[in-house]
Amino acid sequence: MRRVIYLGALLLGCSASNTAPSATDVQHDLDVNFGGYDDKREAPNFGDDAIASLPRFDDRFASTAEIAGSSNAVGAYRVALVWGHFPGANDGSDGDCDAKPASWNGMIAVDSGAIDVVRTLSFDDGDVVDARVDPKSVTFASHTVPFVDGMIVRVKMPEMGGPAKLHFATSELSVDVDLDDIASSSGKVFHGSDDQGLAVVGWNDTAATCPAGVAYGRFVKLGASVGTLRGRLAGGSGDDLGVVHGIWGHAKGRDADVFFTKSIDPAGNFGNLALGQYATGAITGAQGDTASQHGKFTGVYSDGYDRPDGRGVFIAKWTSVCSPM
Description:
- The protein is mainly β.
- It has two domains: 163 residues, no CATH class; 147 residues, no CATH class.
- The protein has four helices and 19 strands.
């Protein structure tokens, strides 16, 4: 079990040894069962200061809005959005692009129904969600770099409310998001100018009975077709559940582009293992333990080195098999 001990101690480079794994180390582990991960307890945050410092979703701007004329929603979607430096996937190259700051001032809106603001991500000084005046829209101002900003919303749709569309209209990017498409896919990335982008993942929340939530963090490229990831795991309400540790790349023995992750709770207790494949900005796979996989893990990622001028990002949804996607 030498490789498992090594990964638990060193992956992502901020352990007590302060030694990052090399591309060669990760390349080897991509052909190991579960990427070398096991179901053992770990040090909190995997002993990694970079994981510990990842931002959490914050509930200070949370708000609930009722649908006009009714207190009952017929349908609902849970949606996580992140925006900022989000260049297209370029994992097969060792190139990189500079991160540029941007101001995102605008709104998130629906044509009918109501939007609940569940939590925000990385809203710092000068960032704000305005006081609600219309249940169908949320206005905000945010500034991105060094990290992306984001929001979890719950969209409530009335009967005969028309297509489930979410309108994202800001000074950097304006797009219409098809929520049924988001719910049935890994997610979508919408690109603006200067490598700015919006990433969206979500699911149909109308009759969800099993746990579901999001994972998000840094997608780091060590070289062409090889890298690591580190992130946080959150519930559907943005509540912090723990952290994620992972590797990705082209596994030569498997002849496939794969990823492996391990999650733990804040105390270091084992959460789950995820494994799957990635391609052209999308990741899809299964999660569970070493005996069986009983859930799904799907999302999107951008490109970048782990350095001040290149920030790779991923956001994914995780769900149990009995929860709608």
